[in-house]
Design goal:
This is GNAT family N-acetyltransferase. The protein has about 190 residues and is an alpha+beta fold. It is built from seven helices and eight strands. Strands 1-2-3-4-5-6-8-7 form an eight-stranded mixed sheet, with helices on both faces. Strand 5, helix 5 and strand 6 form a beta-alpha-beta unit. Helix 1 packs across helix 3. The longest helix has 16 residues. The chain starts with 11 loop residues before the first strand and ends with a helix.
């Protein structure tokens, strides 16, 4: 049986963060910083109003994780369990075998290593908690902060995709894809 995110033993703790599944009421708590232009520059979903933000947030609760620092939500992320690509006769064995990770941080806590700490916790959650065999994360190539976090937590660059991503600025930007296998993750920890 493949565990679901909500079935794990919560909350989880890192040196400075407490992680738990997202809740409906978190939408209002993250809205003040999530709507900032420097945050919206790189997010995939633009919600111009609190009501639209809440609707989007509720739709993503199945994969949402929040990070609290000193009792305040300073990070939101996702561990979105997915089926691996497979031949049709292997579909059942490929079910739920990978996860996509993503994260967004309150700009007031940038530069303190909390993004790396949070992303590391999501990585651990995917491999140790959910037992996936592969994780992936993607970003716009110009999002240097996200790229640095991916590299710090040990993800491997798998591809640069030239002008494959249409940014809300109207420009076609390069995209980057990073990944890590469970075997690589366990090898690093040994």
């Amino acid at each position: 049986m493949i565990p679901a995110l909500a079935e794990l033993d919560w909350p989880l703790h890192t040196d400075r963060l407490e992680l738990r599944p997202g809740r409906e009421e978190d939408a209002a708590a993250i809205w003040p910083w999530y709507r900032m232009p420097e945050v919206q520059e790189w997010t995939t979903t633009l919600s111009p109003t609190l009501a639209e933000h809440q609707e989007h947030w509720v739709r993503t609760l199945g994969s949402a994780v929040v990070g609290l620092h000193e009792g305040t939500v300073v990070a939101v992320g996702k561990v979105d369990r997915q089926d691996a690509w497979s031949q049709t006769d292997m579909k059942e064995r490929a079910a739920g075998q990978q996860a996509e990770l993503g994260w967004v941080l309150d700009p007031t806590v940038h530069g303190r290593g909390l993004g790396t700490e949070f992303a590391t916790a999501l990585l651990n959650l995917a491999f140790d908690g959910l037992g996936v065999r592969r994780i992936e994360a993607a970003c716009f190539a110009e999002n240097l902060a996200s790229r640095r976090v991916m590299e710090k937590i040990g993800l491997r660059l798998e591809g640069v995709f030239y002008e494959d991503s249409l940014h809300r600025s109207g420009r076609w930007l390069d995209g980057m894809s990073y990944a890590l296998l469970a075997s690589e993750y366990r090898g690093r920890r040994a």
